[in-house]
Amino acid sequence: MSETYLEPAAWFATLPSAFISASMLLTDADDRVLLVKPNYRPGWNFPGGIAEENETPHDCAAREIAEELGLSVEPGDLLVVHWSPPLGERPRPLVNFLFDGGVVADPSRIRVQAEELDEVAFLPWEEGIALLPSSTSARLRTARLARADGHPHYLAGGSDETAE
């Protein structure tokens, strides 16, 4: 056996890691985008959140939609995988999976989780893009493209560049 061999546990401990989050793109009958304004940080975002230990991204997205909005929505197609570098106090990269949540047929069924959210709004796409932080706004533009062309897009950093 080589002197450089590491036992699997030791080897895995040397690998880089990232935080995983998942969210959903939800729209209404007028093709407006649903965004949420968390009360624990500034700005607007997609409904969603950080995956729990051993939770799959699509299960995370469904759980977060149920918790934040009181809706039972099965994640549809994967629209965007967005890799973001460490930012501010976040020491590791973040990988976000954005799923298509479809159309909310009856917005009156939304039950806002007041412990985490100050506001929920259906907004025109361009208004939503303008409200999102720069690190997230490209995700909304890219999600619109992915919905239109029917396949997921990869987004790196906060840019508009996508790769398929």
UniProtKB/TrEMBL annotation:
InterPro entries: Nudix_hydrolase, NUDIX_hydrolase-like_dom_sf, NUDIX_hydrolase_CS, NUDIX_hydrolase_dom. Its cofactor is Mg(2+). Residues 16-145 form the Nudix hydrolase domain. It comes from the Bacteria. Signal peptide: none annotated. One of its GO terms (molecular function) is hydrolase activity. Pfam families: NUDIX. Keywords: Hydrolase, Magnesium. Belongs to the Nudix hydrolase family. PANTHER family: GDP-MANNOSE MANNOSYL HYDROLASE. This is NUDIX hydrolase. It comes from Streptosporangium longisporum.
